[in-house]
Inverse folding.
């Protein structure tokens, strides 16, 4: 189980995250929603161990991130929001680099890398440097690299961004199957439809604090658009009609 | 006027020529300071040169007119060569931005701008960029140029000589800049698109390497008066000589007409090639986004993937990552080639100056200029190459992507990362210099060269272990702040270290040259010291995390003046 207790992060005088607590259980997909600037990315960076919290504690299956950061990170697979990877490498080179850094046995890598590339429809482009890849192709490489070491926890930040319909459907199905096998999935997104389709639980973040935590099934009982409406209320979003009107007035006056 | 699209776009292209794309905000600020500092250094260098040449011209004015004129010709070749070198170097560094590229097409063609505006603005920004360096170097060398014209002032021909020199020198700088543009333009038009990036990087590295290697030759031009008087065979292959020939021809001296004609033909050729490249690319601009299939096909899967496999997984992965980055990243390839070429050029200059190359040295020879230079050369090259290769490995590549290294760091891996980097530095900064200079030493020193090379390898290993003892980063993955040290302190420290190192290693190599047994004793002692540092490095690496973000030193060093 992933446990976050009182996570707080300060950047100088700015309080980005304020005592955030949540849990992700084995076999569960948890959606993490919030408007821009609410602290979503900070949470993701803390969960994957790229940032250290100012206060609070993270643990994964009993391993505390503060005490054994290497053992903690070893169990995590991560797909970042931006497709940040070394594009001068080929997809095969990149996966081999990640596999060697994660100390996977040579035989495992030589079998697993070509197979993952084939299954994610990257095999034909395996010798091309990723500078020539579309955003969707890069996203598939990141998915492959996150799964390569068969992690206990998968942390996904907008994983469907740039994927075409087929790749999106494949990833959705894959996430459900991973969860059914007992993996934990922490899924940060802006897309309500994806949360409703694949998540068991949703956590809504607003101004660095947890504004709402509920089971997704509860929204379904309350009717269509319930999640969206609840999100708008929980995050105290303004009425967008006057804003849209102002924009129209601005460009009309130009 | 300032808001016209042409002006805005020219300004954008011009500023982007100074954007190296790999520095953080702090790094970019530090680089600007370093650039301003180098302008001041250029001005000071010009004044220093004038001071050095004053004595020469004081002596020349007392001598015969012919000798005076010959020295002026050689000095003018030097005065033209410096701006030519600087302009060519600047254009070679920004070789990737000399023509509008795919990004320009995608971003700018979506705006209401015509290709004429885009190409015109690009050209204008390049002219401004080149003009900045032309003006800067000519201004820095103006006092020296004025000094060389004192004779013409006396004889009353200064009104002919000065404009002829200015015209020829400016034309020479134009030629140097456009030659680089022409090479890149022809490459752009003729190379297959799938290989363009690789070829362009290789050409840029080659040009920069050749320019750096030519520094000693440029520095020797003021001493080449006799070569000009005797029409030396190499003059037609030396571009600055062409433009001096043009200058002399313009002042009415027909002896150099052939060189002057070469200057005119070469300048016309590079102008035509550059303009033609621009025109053809302008007409085919939409093709820059045509799909291509760059491929690094390397046989079957097993062979390709097998290259990542080794007994120490992280060490092998880092080694392969660095090797692929140096091969495919234009910036890093350029840095490594530039560094090695600079060290090579420095050493080559001294080797060329030493007399006695006609036949191998007697095995009993233990002294003399050539003997000393042969022992000094690899040590100087190693001393220069190790810290600069270290800097080249510190320059980051796409910092946002380093998260994968941060997520996969482990205790054992830290040691393997440092070990991989040490091996790379050993290969580039020790093995390559020894491989180049070893055969030269063998040729001149005979079998005794073996003793010397063994000792040199041990010294190189020890120096690498010593200078890499505090290395805690994965090459190319940590942010980089250039010039964070106090420059005068670093220069003094570096010079003192260089003097001590070359003196001490010179002694070791002289003793090693005398007897194989002595060489082996040195190898054992130096090897033991390097081995001890290696063990210490592994121990330290386990306890210290890798660095992914470089910070400016903020600690104030107390002078302790108020200690009771």
């Amino acid at each position: 189980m992933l446990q976050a207790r009182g996570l707080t992060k300060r950047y100088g005088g700015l309080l980005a995250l304020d005592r955030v607590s949540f849990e992700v259980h084995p076999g569960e997909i948890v959606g993490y929603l919030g408007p821009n600037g609410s602290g979503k990315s900070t949470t993701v960076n803390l969960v994957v161990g790229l940032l250290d919290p100012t206060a609070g504690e993270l643990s994964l299956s009993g391993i505390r991130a503060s005490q054994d950061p290497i053992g903690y990170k070893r169990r995590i697979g991560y797909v970042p929001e931006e497709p940040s990877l070394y594009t001068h490498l080929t997809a095969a080179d990149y996966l081999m680099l990640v596999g060697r850094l994660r100390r996977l046995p040579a035989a495992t890598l030589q079998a697993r890398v070509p197979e993952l590339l084939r299954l994610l429809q990257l095999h034909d482009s395996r010798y091309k440097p990723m500078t020539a890849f579309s955003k969707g192709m890069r996203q598939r490489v990141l998915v492959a690299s996150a799964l390569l070491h068969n992690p206990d926890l998968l942390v996904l930040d907008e994983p469907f961004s740039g994927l075409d319909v087929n790749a999106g459907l494949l990833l959705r199905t894959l996430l459900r199957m991973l969860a059914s096998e007992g993996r934990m999935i922490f899924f940060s997104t802006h897309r309500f439809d994806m949360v409703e389709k694949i998540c068991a639980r949703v956590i809504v973040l607003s101004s660095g604090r947890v504004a709402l935590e509920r089971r997704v099934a509860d929204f379904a009982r309350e009717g269509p658009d319930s999640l969206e409406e609840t999100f708008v209320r929980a995050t105290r979003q303004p009425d967008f009609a006057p804003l849209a009107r102002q924009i129209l007035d601005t460009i009309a006056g130009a | 006027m300032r808001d016209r699209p042409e002006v805005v776009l020219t300004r954008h292209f011009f500023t982007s020529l100074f954007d190296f794309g790999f520095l953080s905000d702090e790094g970019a600020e530090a680089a600007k300071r370093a650039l301003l500092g180098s302008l001041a250094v250029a001005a000071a260098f010009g004044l220093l040169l004038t001071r050095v040449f004053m004595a020469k011209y004081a002596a020349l004015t007392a001598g015969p007119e012919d000798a005076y004129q010959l020295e002026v010709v050689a000095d003018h070749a030097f005065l033209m060569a410096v701006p030519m070198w600087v302009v060519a170097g600047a254009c070679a560094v920004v070789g990737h931005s000399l023509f509008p590229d795919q990004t320009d097409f995608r971003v700018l063609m979506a705006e209401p701008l015509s290709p004429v505006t885009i190409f015109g603005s690009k050209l204008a920004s390049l002219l401004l960029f080149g003009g900045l360096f032309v003006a800067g170097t000519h201004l820095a060398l103006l006092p020296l140029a004025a000094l060389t014209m004192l004779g013409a002032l006396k004889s009353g021909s200064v009104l002919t000589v000065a404009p002829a020199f200015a015209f020829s020198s400016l034309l020479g700088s134009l030629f140097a800049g456009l030659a680089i543009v022409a090479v890149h333009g022809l490459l752009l038009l003729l190379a297959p698109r799938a290989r363009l990036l690789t070829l362009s990087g290789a050409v840029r590295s080659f040009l920069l390497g050749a320019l750096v290697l030519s520094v000693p030759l440029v520095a020797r031009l003021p001493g080449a008066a006799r070569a000009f008087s005797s029409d030396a065979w190499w003059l037609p292959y030396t571009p600055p000589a062409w433009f001096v020939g043009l200058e002399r021809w313009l002042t009415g001296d027909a002896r150099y007409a052939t060189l002057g004609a070469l200057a005119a033909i070469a300048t016309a050729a590079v102008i035509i090639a550059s303009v033609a490249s621009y025109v053809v690319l302008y007409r085919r601009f939409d093709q820059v986004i045509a799909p291509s299939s760059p491929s690094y096909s390397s046989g079957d899967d097993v062979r390709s993937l097998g290259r990542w496999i080794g007994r120490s997984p992280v060490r092998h992965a880092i080694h392969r990552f660095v090797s692929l980055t140096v091969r495919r990243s234009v910036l890093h390839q350029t840095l490594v080639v530039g560094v090695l070429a600079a060290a090579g050029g420095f050493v080559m200059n001294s080797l060329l100056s030493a007399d006695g190359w006609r036949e191998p040295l007697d095995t009993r020879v233990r002294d003399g200029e050539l003997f000393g230079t042969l022992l000094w050369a690899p040590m100087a090259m190693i001393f220069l190459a190790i810290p600069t290769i270290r800097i080249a490995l510190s320059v980051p590549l796409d910092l946002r992507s380093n998260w994968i290294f941060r997520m996969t760091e482990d205790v054992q891996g830290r040691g393997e990362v440092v070990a991989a980097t040490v091996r790379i530095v050993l290969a580039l900064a020790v093995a390559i210099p020894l491989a180049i200079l070893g055969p030269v030493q063998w040729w001149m020193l005979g079998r005794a060269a073996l003793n010397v090379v063994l000792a040199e390898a041990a010294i190189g290993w020890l120096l690498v272990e010593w200078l890499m003892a505090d290395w805690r980063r994965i090459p190319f993955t940590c942010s980089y702040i250039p010039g964070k040290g106090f420059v005068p302190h670093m220069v003094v420290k570096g010079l003192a270290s260089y003097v001590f190192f070359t003196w001490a290693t010179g002694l070791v190599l002289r003793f090693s040259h005398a007897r194989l047994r002595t060489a082996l004793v040195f190898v054992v002692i130096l090897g033991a010291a390097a081995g001890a540092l290696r063990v210490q490095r592994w121990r330290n690496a386990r306890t210290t995390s890798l660095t992914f973000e470089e910070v400016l030193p903020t600690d104030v060093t107390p002078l302790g003046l108020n200690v009771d």
Remarks:
- The CA atoms of residues 306 and 395 of chain B lie 28 Å apart.
- The interface with chain A takes residues 197, 292-298, 301-302, 304-306, 308-309, 313-314, 316-317, 320-321, 324-325, 328-329, 397-398, 400-401, 403-411, 413 of chain B (CB under 8 Å).
